[in-house]
Amino acid sequence: MAFMCKRCRKAFRKDMAKYEEADEYCPHCDNHYVIEAKTPNAMLGVESEDTRVDNRAIKDERMKHGGKVDTAELDEWLEQLEE
């Protein structure tokens, strides 16, 4: 695979079949050109619209709520998940 160093602007080739940790550096200027990947954090979230606008995601049709759903407990639970 062909690479070009951003620091010294020289092109070079690396064999990806035999890629080692030492190959992360430019052979001309020793610039470290491979950036470490960030590990994503595991998250648990509710994937729906805003429950204050559209509460169908949390509404139980079997229960009678009098037309309104109290989302205060849900808001507290979501805040705890974010921490």
> Structural class, judged by helices and strands?
little secondary structure
| Structural domain count | 2
User: What oligomeric state do these chains adopt?
Assistant: single chain
Unreliable runs, pLDDT <50, ≥5 residues?
none
- N- and C-termini, Cα separation: 43 Å
**Beta-strand percentage range:** 5-15%
Strand order of the largest sheet: 1-2
| Count of separate DSSP helical elements | 1
Mean pLDDT across every amino acid position: 79
- Radius of gyration, in Å, reads 26 Å
How do the strands and helices of this protein lay out in sequence?
Blueprint: E1 2-4, E2 11-13, H1 72-82
Structure in words:
The model has no long low-confidence stretch (mean pLDDT 79). Helices cover 13% and strands 7% of the residues. The protein folds into 2 domains: 1-36, no CATH class; 47-83. The protein contains 1 helix and 2 strands. A hairpin with a 6-residue loop joins strand 1 and strand 2 (11-13). It is rod-shaped. It has one helix at 72-82, and strands spanning 2-4, 11-13. With 83 residues, the chain is largely without helices or strands. The chain has a two-stranded antiparallel ribbon with strand order 1-2. This is Zinc finger, C2H2-type protein. GO terms for molecular function: zinc ion binding. One of its GO terms (cellular component) is mitochondrial intermembrane space.
Task: Report a brief summary of the structure.
The protein has one helix at 72-82, and strands at residues 2-4, 11-13.
